[in-house]
Amino acid sequence: MKWGFRWYGQGDSIPLENVGQIPGINGIVGTLLDKLPGDIWEVDEIQELKDSVEAGNLELLGIESVAIHDAIKAGTADRDHYIDNYIQTIKNLSKCGVHLICYSFKPIFGWAKTNLFYENEDGSFSLVYDQSVVDNMQPSEMYTLIHSQSKGFRLPGWEKERLDKFNRLVETYEGVTEEVLFENLSYFLQKIIPICEEMDVKMAIHPDDPPWEIFGFPRITKNLADLKRILSIVDSPYNGITLCTGSLGADPANDLVEIIHEVGERINFVHFRNVGFMGERKFKETAHLSTEGSLDMYALMQALVDVGFDGVIRPDHGRTIWGEVAMPGYGLYDRAMGITYMQGLHEAITKAKK
Ligand SMILES: [Mn+2]
């Protein structure tokens, strides 16, 4: 496995040097934070990011996310223009030696939480999702809530530019059912996967977070059946998934070990994190250890080893601890402990296997 860490570039609260000091780390999964969905990522911009990462003795292991323009997701008349731009970005990433793209195909809300700073008993802070809060909320209020708690950080998917266009976005998605959204994903993948094969760039779709419908917008990456259906659109290793344990695992009906075994060879990227169930459709993001949340992280690492996963894996969201001021979920300390725990699990499992 390649051990990665999400890093937001020069705008990140964490200096790259600190990331490089995490034991066993291979590289970062990066982004160009200023890019809006639909923009072409130019070679010189990607190269600049890559050079800065390599100057810190780290590898640029992949990109998350190259966001998909709403025209592609909603299937509007101008989608081909944005697909052409996406293809150009794939080619440019390949030219720079970047071979992994994480993306998601969700209308309007990429991820959602109802509290970004829930205080735990020990004084640490977690992100929390509570469906009962969402049930009493208008979709646009979600923007207000997230912004009021972002502490000034730019949160991907919650850009002010998107909020300004919110009502028009909702109109864009009128009539887009789950079936239509799936058809639009099929159209997109059929166009790009042949290019990905040629350019050796693996795609990894991220599951819904939370993995159920919110505000009535369609969701098509919620469970094993959804993932299998997506993988069947184009039967290629370049059409793969991001196994995000905390996203899929927020629904207790999702058996993550089964999912890993069923789609194992198509897992192109792993987000490893735990969640703690607090009630019906209510959960918090905990520290990574099995003892801290509801998921059996040992069983998940065991399953990844069993299916021979050898791609990029990274710790996903951590708590905010030790007084750190960081983007919610993306502080240094809890994620650094998370990756060390993950490496401990991996070493024990692989050595026991021999
Ligand atoms: Mn994730």
TrEMBL record:
It catalyses: D-mannonate = 2-dehydro-3-deoxy-D-gluconate + H2O. Pathway: Carbohydrate metabolism; pentose and glucuronate interconversion. It comes from the Bacteria. Its cofactor is Fe(2+); Mn(2+). One of its GO terms (biological process) is D-glucuronate catabolic process. Catalyzes the dehydration of D-mannonate. HAMAP family: UxuA. This is Mannonate dehydratase. It comes from Enterococcus thailandicus. The lineage of its organism: Bacteria, Bacillati, Bacillota, Bacilli, Lactobacillales.
